[in-house]
Structure formats: structure tokens, C-alpha cells
């Protein structure tokens, strides 16, 4: 199993969230655990820039050779950027999930809820392994 970066926050739906320290805009991606479980990612559908998203809502999809999985908004706010590179090359979700494989950025309208620390997320993934 791959390592889980300590500086990020996580959801039980296997998304990671970076940038909570600035309090405004966060970057969201899929964890390496999820990418490994999905297999080879072949298609990514992301929300539109300018879309308002609600924490917990399904806002996109990741399709792999094995299945299709929803992407959930980890925070409430406005999508301010999507990673067109990952739309054009979905394999980045597998090869660099915490770097070039990020999905979108959200300007938060409120504080995040129900996010997990790296230790808590490790417990979740251990139970699912």
C-alpha cells in the first residue's frame, strides 16, 4: 500500500484535500488507495468552473477499466479551477494522485466538515484492505 501524506486531510470516500491552512481555496484529488482500487483510470468527469458544490454531493466521476466511481465534494463552495491535464490524461490519477493527478480547486464558503487526519484515514483504509 502506498504512503498517506500527513499534511493532507481526507474523506471516507477516498478524496484528499490540501490547502486548508489558507482557509479559502482547497485542492481536491483522489487518494492513492482509491486509485489502486480502481485500476487503470481511463476517463475523468469533473464539475465545471464556477459551479457551486455542496459537501457530500456527487459532482463528477472517475471511470476505470474495472468500474465507475463518483467523486464527492469534500467541502461546500465554488469550483474555481479544474485540472484539464487530468481530463486529457486520466492516467495521472494513477501515476501521481497527490501531484499532477489533482482534480479541482474549490473556494470554500464554510469550514470543512467530517474530514479525516492521515492517521484516521489510515485506519479507514486498513479496515477496507
UniProtKB/TrEMBL annotation:
The modification N6-lipoyllysine is found at residue 66. CDD domains: GCS_H (cd06848). The keyword Zinc does not apply. Binds 1 lipoyl cofactor covalently. It comes from the Bacteria. InterPro entries: 2-oxoA_DH_lipoyl-BS (IPR003016), Biotin_lipoyl (IPR000089), GCV_H (IPR002930), GCV_H/Fam206 (IPR033753), GCV_H_sub (IPR017453), Single_hybrid_motif (IPR011053). Coiled coil: none annotated. Keywords: Lipoyl. Its cofactor is (R)-lipoate. Gene3D superfamilies: 2.40.50.100. The keyword RNA-binding does not apply. Residues 25-107 form the Lipoyl-binding domain. SUPFAM superfamilies: Single hybrid motif. The glycine cleavage system is composed of four proteins: P, T, L and H. Belongs to the GcvH family. The glycine cleavage system catalyzes the degradation of glycine. The H protein shuttles the methylamine group of glycine from the P protein to the T protein. NCBIfam families: gcvH, PRK01202.1. This is Glycine cleavage system H protein. It comes from Sphaerisporangium corydalis. The lineage of its organism: Bacteria, Bacillati, Actinomycetota, Actinomycetes, Streptosporangiales.
Amino acid at each position: 500500500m502506498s504512503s498517506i501524506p500527513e499534511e493532507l486531510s481526507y474523506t471516507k470516500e477516498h478524496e484528499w484535500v490540501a490547502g486548508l491552512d489558507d482557509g479559502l481555496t482547497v485542492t481536491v484529488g483522489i487518494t492513492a488507495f482509491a486509485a489502486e482500487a480502481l485500476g487503470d483510470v481511463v476517463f475523468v468527469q469533473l464539475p465545471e468552473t464556477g459551479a457551486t458544490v455542496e459537501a457530500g454531493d456527487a459532482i463528477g466521476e472517475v471511470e476505470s477499466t474495472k468500474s465507475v466511481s463518483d467523486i464527492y465534494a469534500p467541502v461546500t463552495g465554488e469550483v474555481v479551477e479544474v485540472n484539464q491535464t487530468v481530463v486529457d490524461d486520466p492516467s495521472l490519477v494513477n501515476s501521481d494522485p497527490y501531484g499532477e493527478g489533482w482534480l479541482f480547486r474549490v473556494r470554500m464558503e464554510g469550514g470543512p466538515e467530517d474530514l479525516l487526519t492521515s492517521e484516521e484515514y489510515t485506519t479507514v483504509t486498513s479496515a477496507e484492505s
